[in-house]
Each structure stands twice: as structure tokens, then as C-alpha cells.
Amino acid sequence: MNIFVCIKQVPDTETKVTPNSSGTYIETNSIKWIMNPYDEFAVEQSLLIKAAKPEANVTVIRVGGSKDTEALRTAMAMGADEAILIEASDNLDSYMTAKALKGAIEKTGKKPDLILTGKQAIDDDCLQVPQLLAQMLGLPSVSVVVGFELAGNDLTLRREIEGGTIEIYKLQSPCLVACNKGLNTPRYASLPGIMKAKKKPLTTYKLSDVGVADADMRIKYSAFSLPPEKPAGKKMDAMDAAKQNEVVKKVVGLLRTEAKVI
Amino acid sequence: MAKILVFTELNGEHAKGVALEILGKLNGHNVDCVCIGKTPKTAIEEMAKNGASNVFSLQSTGLQNYSAEGYAAALKEIIQKNNYDYVFAGSTSVGKDLFPRLAGTLNCGMASEVTNFLFEGDKFLGTRPLFAGKCYAKVEILGPKPHFVTVRPNALGMNAAAKAGTGAATDVSVNVGDIKAIVKEVVKGASEKLDLTEANIIVSGGRAMKNAENFKILNELADVIGATVGASRAAVDSGFAPHSMQVGQTGKTVSPALYIACGISGAIQHLAGMRTSKVIVAINTDPDAPIFTKADYGIVGDLFQIVPLLTAEFKNLLLK
Fold first, then answer.
1. Which residues of B touch A142 (CB under 8 A)?
2. Domain final position from B156, B173, B190
């Protein structure tokens, strides 16, 4: 069984974002990069399958900068068998990224039985790559998945939609599953795992190697800017029980007369 | 004047609000709407009132339940038949899942979840948040037409001055072919309330809630003011609330008219997800909590005392 896990490296969630001087992207020099949090659930799911089916082969693929390959090494330390890096800028658009992933999967010569991804990358928040990749490979996909059962080729997937409502899908592999928080609890890489990962194969391609050209660009960003700061609001002290009633009455009154939201 | 199609989802008898927001904003262009299945009269009237020229209802076996494959095949047919320049949808659960696949079937580009846009002549220019709203950028779509756009609910607002369209309703038979992944069953969430991403008012609890049971006081407040209840990552990771309730960079990005943060200190990843709320009320015992830098009205106090008082006061006000 061939499992491909597509991961992205993104700035840590605690990062304070600053636009670069030309406004074409953000300043990336002093950023701490992490594996996209939703992708950790995808890696974990592949390893849970591998634990049940030892013959399964897990390949992790990432499109992005080559300065730092930590996310791929982490995935291999967790237990993935091999990794592919497609060198590109960290803000490549969704269409080019999906096409690059497709090219890399095809280059391995292995027929994918299952492709796992996170439901979204928390940097550009586009939520396009999983569905685009599935479409390009002619596979069905289910996104925002919080429940996963595999019996033979039969999959039962639970997708979360508005209001915590769950849609249940029953389908057969091959398919693509985009994972959400709550699906599983990602493991930490063990020390022996980290040592083993150093010897696992990591193949590197350029975009042109996987069939992606400049003409594939579909999205162009400009004028990165910070959101406007709000003027300081009114802060009222209500630590003292005697003041609480008065402060609450005042705030509720202001919500109606000044803010006009109630 | 660009030729535009708006994919409209239904909510019972009504068109979803975000589709009407998009229609209002597109006033002045040549705009049609498309729905899946039978479209109720009320919904057609709402679309017409906000500027729709035609309302197409796509019908086929295989479209009874949602599937990205089936919906994409159906929409592709009408898009190609009528040669649209742009296709819009709300950035909802369906919009987010369906539109990338639909754009992919035509090898076309898509701008995700814009919060505003304009047209320079026939050229779309959008604004969208990145990093959950820590920054914004202008976005253009390149490559072959049509171009696809999804829009965040509540971001544009309704256009009260929208010029009505004819709203000519047509049923269209389409062929959706073979579908591999389709919804077999739906398990309703516990809450009948609007989703966080669509809610007009949100009451959120943080780590200071101490446990899941204490969310009861937030639910009581929410019931009085018609709000949806949310939670911070700290509260979700501590097991007080499910992930579907999480607001922030690894949860949902929200922009309600009123956001009431209870016992939330305001980590950078939480602020990113709620800072575009129109009015923010924060309740926290720590006067230096970062949440107060974003709050319009800050109450330095214990949420367990303040929230019940707020509930009682809102009850007084709204029953008058």
C-alpha cells in the first residue's frame, strides 16, 4: 500500500508577521518554521495505518524552501519511510503547488492508494491544494476529516461542517483525505526515530523536474500590509463587587447607544 | 461589464446571506445565480432583489446529497454553456471544498476567502487576510478565464441600495457522471445555532473557564442575545470545548458584529482569528491581558461574577 503525505512548513503560530519592504510577502529572516499543525494529523494517520499494515510505504512530500528541511526530517523521525522535497519559494501559489505534488508522486512510479494532507496551511489559508491535487490525479477527496476507518479498500470518513455537524462518507481507496484537528493525537519523534531519520532517503527536485512552469502561476499577491490598529477602547475596573452592577449596566448601555450592536 | 455567476447555497426557504452580500457588491455587472436542486420561491425573490438576472436550478440524479465531484461537474456544465468571466461563492464548508476542485477541472485560478474586492474595468482585484488575519494582501488572478473567487461571510455586508434584477428562474438538467465520494449520512451537531463563521454575535471562553461545565454560563448569555459560543485554543486543548468551537489561527477566523471574550488572555494566534470583529468586549481579571488592547469595552473583573450580571442586564434590555 502506497501512502503519500503532503506537508508544508509554515511560520510558528506565535510569529509576529511583518510585511517585507517591497510588500510582496512577509519578512522571513528571523522566523521559526514548524510543520503546518494540520499536517501533523496527516502524518500521524499514515503511521497508524502503517502500524496495522506493516507492508505500507509512507512517502512525505513538501514543496518549499530548501534552507531548512526540518519538517520532512520530523515526519521521517515520527516514522515515515522516505521524503521528497520540491525546491520552490515558501509562498508558491496553490495551483503550482498541487501540480508539483502531482508531478512528484508520478515520478516515484508508485500508484498512490492514499494521499493524506492537512485541511489547510495556516500561512496562506487558501484551502485549495488538497482538492486541486485530487482533481489533477482524478481521485475523489474528502476534506476537514475528523474520523477515519479503513477496512480493506473501504473507507469511512467523517467530515466536519458548520455547527459541528458531521457528514459521513463511504468510499474506496484510492482517494485523498484532508485531515482536521481531532482526528488523532500526533506522536512525538523518539530519539532512536530521530537517529534513523538521518539515514532515510530524501530526494530533491526542482519545479521544472516535476513539470511546473512559470505559466502555471494563477495567483499574484501585492501590497502586504498589517491590519489597521483600533484606537484604544474603554477599560473599566470591576474587581470590586460594589462596582460590578454599575460597570455591567454601563457596558450594556454603550453596546446599544454607542456601538449599536444590540 | 464582466459576466458573472454566483453559486448560491440555500438555507431552508432562503438564500444563504453570503450569496446575497456578494450579489449586492456585484451590482452593476451582468450577474446570474446558480443553485443545486429545486430553488424555493423565497430564495429566488431574495436573489432577484439583490440583482440576479437569471437564477438557474441544476437538476440531476446524483445531486440529492453533496459531493464535490457531482456539484463541480454540474457547475462546469453551466459555466461553459454561458461563458462566464468570474464565478463567485461564499467561503462556507461547501464553497471551500467545492471551488478548488471546480477551478481545477478548468485549470483556472481561484482567490480564496476574500474580505473585499473591486473591479478595475473587467479586472478583479481582491483583498484577503493571510496568517489568519495577522496581515492582508491584494490578490489578482492570472491565467485562463473564468476566474474563481470565494468570499468570507459577513465581510462585505448587505447592500441596502442594491438594484433588483429580473430573477428569471430556469430549471436546467445536467449530467454529473460517476461520483466516488458522496455524503451518505449527516449527523447533526448539538447546536441549532449559526456556525461561528456566520454568527453575528459570539461569546467565547478561555482557560479561565476552568472546566467544560462552566461553559453553561456562556450558553445562558448566548441564548439571551442570540449568540454562538466559541472557545480559545487554551480552552480546547484543556478539553473544555470541542475543536469545532475554536477561534484563532488553528481554529476558525470570525468577524461578528459583537465578540465577547470571557477569561481569554489574548494570545497572538487568538487575536488573529477575531480582531476583525466589529465590536469587542473583554472580561478578564488581569488588567494587563493583551486582549484589552483589542477591546472596545474592557471589563477588569471575574467572569464568574460579570457574565451572569451581563445576562440579567441584556435580558432587561431586550425584554423592554
1. 181
2. B173
Domain boundaries, chain A: 2-216, 232-262
> Would an 8 Å CB–CB cutoff place B172 in contact with chain A?
no
The answer to whether position B193 is within a domain reads no
Is the confidence at residue B190, as pLDDT, over 80?
no
Per-residue H/E/C for chain A: CEEEEEECEEECCCCCCCECCCCCCECCCCCCEEECHHHHHHHHHHHHHHHHCCCCEEEEEEEECCCCCHHHHHHHHHCCCEEEEEECCCCCCHHHHHHHHHHHHHHCCCCCCEEEEECCCCCCCCCCHHHHHHHHHCCCEEEEEEEEEEECCEEEEEEECHHHCEEEEEEECCEEEEECCCCCCCCCCCHHHHHHHCCCCEEEEEHHHHCCCHHHCCEEEEEEECCCCCCCCEEEECCCHHHHHHHHHHHHHHHHHCCCCC
Contacts of A96 in chain B (CB under 8 A): none
Residue B94 phi/psi, 5-degree rounding, is: -70, -45
Q: Would the pLDDT of B39 be above 90?
A: yes
Flag whether B196 is in a domain.
no
Q: Report the residue of A255, A256, A257, A258 to disrupt the B interface, i.e. the one with the largest count of B CBs within 10 Å.
A: A255
Shortest Cα–Cα distance, B132 to chain A (Å) = 7
| Closest Cα in chain A, distance from residue B165 (Å) | 30
What mean pLDDT is predicted for residues B68-73?
98
Q: Are B37 and B77 found together in one domain?
A: yes
Please say whether the dihedral angle defined by the alpha carbons of residues B147, B36, B76 and A128, taken in this order, is positive or negative.
Answer: positive
Quote the pTM value.
0.94
Domain shared by B138 and B208, yes or no: no
Q: How many CB atoms lie within 10 A of CB B175?
A: 10
A12: CB partners within 8 A, 6+ apart = A31, A32, A33, A34
CATH number reported for the structural domain that contains residue B315 in this entry: 3.40.50.1220
Domain that holds residue B10: 3-173
Cβ contacts (< 8 Å) between B179 and chain A: which residues?
A: 140
Cβ–Cβ contact A51 with B under 8 A: no
Residue B56 banded pLDDT, cuts 50, 70, 90: very high
Q: Cell numbers at residue B108, please? A: 483556472
The pLDDT-based confidence of A231 (bands split at 50, 70, 90) is confident
pLDDT band at B192 (very low <50, low <70, confident <90, very high): confident
Q: How many domains does chain B have?
A: 2
Tell me the mean pLDDT in the region A14-43.
94
Asked whether residue B183 is domain-assigned, the answer is no
- CA distances, B310 to each of A233, A260, B281, B318 (Å): 19, 16, 11, 12
Are residue B216 and residue B111 in the same domain, yes or no?
Answer: no
| B212 found inside a domain | yes
Q: Which residue of A has its CA nearest to B113?
A: A126
Same domain flag for B111 and B61: yes
CATH superfamily entry for domain A2-216: HUPs (3.40.50.620)
